[in-house]
Specification:
Two copies of one chain form a homodimer. In chain A, strands 2-8-7-6-5-3-4 form a seven-stranded mixed β-sheet, sandwiched between helices. In chain A, strands 1-11-12-10-9 form a five-stranded mixed β-sheet, with helices on one face. With 365 residues, chain A is α/β, with parallel strands linked by helices. The first copy, chain A, contains 14 helices and twelve strands. In chain A, 42% of the residues lie in helices and 14% in strands. The first copy, chain A, folds into two domains: 121 residues, Alpha-Beta Complex (Aspartate Aminotransferase, domain 1), CATH 3.90.1150.10; 224 residues, 3-Layer(aba) Sandwich (Aspartate Aminotransferase, domain 2), CATH 3.40.640.
Amino acid sequence: MQFNPILDSINVYEAGKPIELVVREFGIDNDDIIKLASNENPYGCSSKVSKALQKHADEAYRYPDDSMYELKKNLSDHLSIKSSQLIIGAGSDQVIEMAIRAKADSDRPILMNSITFAMYSIYAAQVGTPVVRTSSLEHNLDEFYELYADQKPSIIFLCTPNNPTGDAINTKELIEFIDKIDRNTLVVVDGAYMEYASAKDENYSVAAHQLIEKFEHVLYLGTFSKSYGLGGMRVGYGAAREEIIEALYKMRPPFNVTTLSLVAATAALKDGEFMHKSIEKNFEQMELFEKFAKDNGFEYIESYTNFITWLLPEHLDSSELSDALLRQGIIVRNLKSYSMNALRITIGTPKQNQKFLKQMQRLLD
Amino acid sequence: MQFNPILDSINVYEAGKPIELVVREFGIDNDDIIKLASNENPYGCSSKVSKALQKHADEAYRYPDDSMYELKKNLSDHLSIKSSQLIIGAGSDQVIEMAIRAKADSDRPILMNSITFAMYSIYAAQVGTPVVRTSSLEHNLDEFYELYADQKPSIIFLCTPNNPTGDAINTKELIEFIDKIDRNTLVVVDGAYMEYASAKDENYSVAAHQLIEKFEHVLYLGTFSKSYGLGGMRVGYGAAREEIIEALYKMRPPFNVTTLSLVAATAALKDGEFMHKSIEKNFEQMELFEKFAKDNGFEYIESYTNFITWLLPEHLDSSELSDALLRQGIIVRNLKSYSMNALRITIGTPKQNQKFLKQMQRLLD
């Protein structure tokens, strides 16, 4: 059978290895496995979320409220924007997909950082739109501007803090940059890890309302998958002026967020304390990873997220190291597929981190 | 801002009115509302499902197993096909979307019944592919063949039993039809309500394995939203030969099914008894709706599903009737948007049905 020729250029996205498969392969007990690969909140989700899920479990038969009234009301209050300036996706991934399908065209490329969230280029490939990347490891806005002026992209993706590197863009520089971009180019500011950056340093904090008030050509992305601890529930959002939101809505599949995901996200929003404590513990624990790198002579990228990226020296191979860790039941993200000799490690619980760092030290000694 | 010109021709899908909004509008108590509009399983979900959801609620933080190993293993056993012949979607809706994006092209239209599931044409519009429809109310395979021969569609959608009309295609005729279609045209057999049809009359029963064994150009769709009682969890599937499944996988967004949806669907599969009892009660109760129609001089379409479509006589207006019902807290689907003077009513629980029929009789008297 002949398919859409676009398919020939699409690689299937390879997700982090599910814990269950690792168990099967190495015969390691489930409880002994440490997964530091997907930047989940290692403290799980708020107990208010799990209680709400338990309470509403028997509503699994009922179609979701497709207007998402409750969640949008709570979230728009939280973000200090209007409900009409929000669209909810099955993860912010889905908002990325809707944005690309609504805005991209085949004549203009999509501009993004050299190394950044993989989904931008995956969804670009699905619509057959070309991708242009900067060459710098971290977001270099001068380079972005040069490429913008030269290539006239339809969409510019700025991921701050950036995944999988952890660096962030200075807020003032970000806003100056966006202001220089013409109003027919969509600037997507992906703040999936923004709650971490905001807690760490206000100079790297960006709020959705701040962007929306100023700019008609910005789409801010947020997610419940990271600091809110709902990686499994697939809830993210886009915030923008109504013109953009209405366009995205036309590419939204109905009932794109499950009944229980709406329950979970609404409950998560109401427990800011859980989130803030998770973030506090995250940065306390991150110091151990920074110290470990220094002690062992590694470089690392200063992180505004819940993970750290270790740039390994030449004599250490990230693939060999991640394989060796896997055999011990420890899963981290090898960045070889991004052409980096680096490991991206989610900052886990104190117990997980201790075990990981001990095992890592053993491999290096 | 300029967007993809395709957006100009897209209407946003209007979902059934969420119960919560009706409550707000008419000040009706939540417990007094009867929703017979979305063809959910009125008996809810299996208690095994709600127990599994409660048990796994605190896993909401963990990304789904994107290989969907457990669910695919259980489902492929259940369907007597290989795991590699399955793709899981966020509802079978998403498999429809993936199929259209993977197969449709702008030169060939998509062929479907005059009145059928709305999502086929919505996703067709999103990729800008034209739609051709038969003129008959029920699937007329001769007419389908004529249009096929004339229009050379890329995809033919057959919805059996059909939503929103409830009629089904005879299995033998279906298979003869598919055999006449060239192997570069994808035939999608949407069996969202198939469990009901199979229970009612084996002459209208189609099994995924039966189609896959015979045909290389068929995609069978099934869902957990209807008889399995998981409308809120968004889990459906496509079953086909590997060549088709691999193409759809390229258009699949990663992590498209939530962690708890995988848990729910796997648990639902293991409680066939709940499903079979729901179906048995469904057809017992449907007799009351058939009798009511006859007693009041309506036509109705013989239904192989968990809903019935009443074709109203000229002096009764479906919009007026559904509005009047709404004010009593009863929600049914008015089919005016399909250019039918008809109501589609989900067969509810005995108590719901009694209340609905009583209220309906009052409106007619």
